[in-house]
Amino acid sequence: MNSFDTEQFVDMKSVLALLFFVIFGACNTPYYSSPNSMLGQPASLYLIDGRQINGKIAVRTFDDYSSVARIQFSEGATNQYRDYFIEDIQSIYMNGSVYQVKLLIGSQFWGGDALRLVKRLSAENGRMAMFEHEKMFKNATTGKMEKITEFFLQLPNSQRREIYNAESAKFTPNFDDKMAAIVVDCPELAAKIKSKHRDYFYPFLANNSELRRRTVLLQIINEYNSCKQ
After folding, report:
1. Continuous H helices in 21-107
2. C-alpha 107: how far from chain center
3. pLDDT higher than threshold 70 for residue 17
4. Kind and range of the H or E element at 11?
5. What pLDDT does residue 71 have?
6. Which value, in Å, is the radius of gyration of the alpha carbons in the chain?
7. How far apart are alpha carbons 203 and 190 in whole angstroms?
8. 190 or 1: whose pLDDT is higher?
9. Which pLDDT score is estimated for 25?
10. Taking a C-beta distance cutoff of 8 angstroms, is the pair 219, 194 a contact?
């Protein structure tokens, strides 16, 4: 092998080494885009069988309109990720909040509905519950990625994973009529909603802030769950 061939061989080895580092090193580099697109984030996994596993979580989805393909977890300080079936997962504790996989209904997902990881906002074990779904979108004006927050509600007697978009036709317009009908078995609460009491109602298509909608919905959910204890 002449000197020119040797230099080429050395250069090729350097290129291959760099590619190996980029491809395989990047695969284990922690990142966070949203609860449905992340890798290497510290978390605790709670399984249906009662086990708790502490370590790092990885969640991947095709985009913000697709179901969670799989949830992987690496126990302890290792980087050996194992797949977990969604039906075996009770909840995930991460960044000071509880997350659960739910079937989101009433948004523009591929196929109509989607299984997504959402943050629980209300107390556990209530007949009604509230969740926050976070997704990213590109602002057409600024070109920057921005976060959108959607609220979803779990209703009395619904299937375990079904939750409904709070801005969907199930609740709006005529929020007072539709929500009052949902909580009709708590007559005092239903009457407050029906009368459009400020703490239990927000007009559709008005300039309602995210905080306002969140406050009203949590007020209704907490009072309903207290009523049905």
Report:
1. 26-27
2. 13
3. no
4. helix 3-20
5. 94
6. 23
7. 16
8. 190
9. 41
10. no
